[in-house]
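queue> pop job 88
queue> type: inverse folding (structure -> sequence)
queue> payload:
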């Protein structure tokens, strides 16, 4: 009986380890009308713009799906510029994803898709896209982890783990980097802890005489539940209760006389 209980507990534990997780959406938008209208995104549906507000717009000429997306136009930006959205969540794991497209041009800018703590303070992580198309991870020594394909929509996905202060980065459904340390500081990747998710943003560092345009569509921010722990605890409680019943049953039996 005890061996059976141990086996059952082991199976439940393994089941908990492989059980898939399903994200709960905190925020999603495809920038459609309603509520978005074409023009500057600053002030629309909770969105704000860092830098030159006129350079980040809702437009209806290019979209990954639907009829609208948001674009950032470096030639209109005086400095680092892009739209960002703030959320309030204490989730231990937060997933951030979006479709990104950047036009190829004769003068390319640098781009960034990333996340910070509340009020744009404390760098969680993300990626930089250089003017040569190199994708650099915003973590530690900020290594290059891939090459961006211009003129087509690319799907970026991050899972930020605030318990371990690390994150995973996937591009077009393929895991590119796992357990990268949070960047930490806005002034450089010092590894300082960031307690909670705050802002998601897409921005440009415009080159002089830049003539490229960047687009973002279908951005999702989700909390990732932790069913593995729940299953493990449930299995432990089940095993404990069964062992206790077995012990009580054994104690109620009459003692055997020996000769």
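queue> result:
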């Amino acid at each position: 009986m005890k061996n059976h209980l141990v086996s059952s507990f082991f199976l439940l534990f393994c089941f908990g380890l492989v059980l898939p997780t399903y994200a709960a959406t905190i925020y999603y938008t495809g920038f459609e009308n309603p509520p978005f209208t074409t023009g500057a995104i600053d002030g629309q549906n909770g969105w704000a713009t860092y830098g030159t507000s006129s350079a980040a717009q809702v437009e209806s000429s290019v979209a990954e799906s639907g009829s609208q997306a948001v674009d950032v136009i470096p030639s209109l930006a005086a400095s680092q510029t892009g739209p960002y959205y703030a959320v309030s969540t204490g989730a231990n794991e937060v997933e951030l994803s979006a479709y990104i497209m950047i036009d190829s041009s004769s003068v390319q800018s640098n781009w960034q898709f990333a996340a910070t703590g509340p009020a744009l303070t404390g760098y969680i992580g993300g990626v930089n896209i250089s003017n040569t198309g190199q994708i650099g991870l915003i973590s530690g020594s900020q290594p290059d982890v891939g090459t961006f394909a211009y003129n087509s929509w690319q799907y970026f996905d991050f899972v930020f783990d605030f318990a371990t202060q690390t994150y995973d980065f996937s591009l077009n459904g393929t895991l590119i980097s796992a357990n990268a340390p949070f960047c930490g500081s806005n002034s450089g990747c010092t590894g300082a802890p960031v307690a909670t998710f705050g802002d998601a943003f897409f921005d440009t560092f415009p080159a002089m005489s830049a003539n490229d345009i960047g687009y973002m569509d279908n951005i999702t921010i989700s909390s990732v539940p932790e069913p593995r722990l729940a299953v493990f605890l449930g299995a432990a409680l089940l095993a404990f209760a069964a062992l206790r019943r077995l012990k009580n049953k054994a104690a109620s039996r009459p003692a055997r006389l020996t000769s």
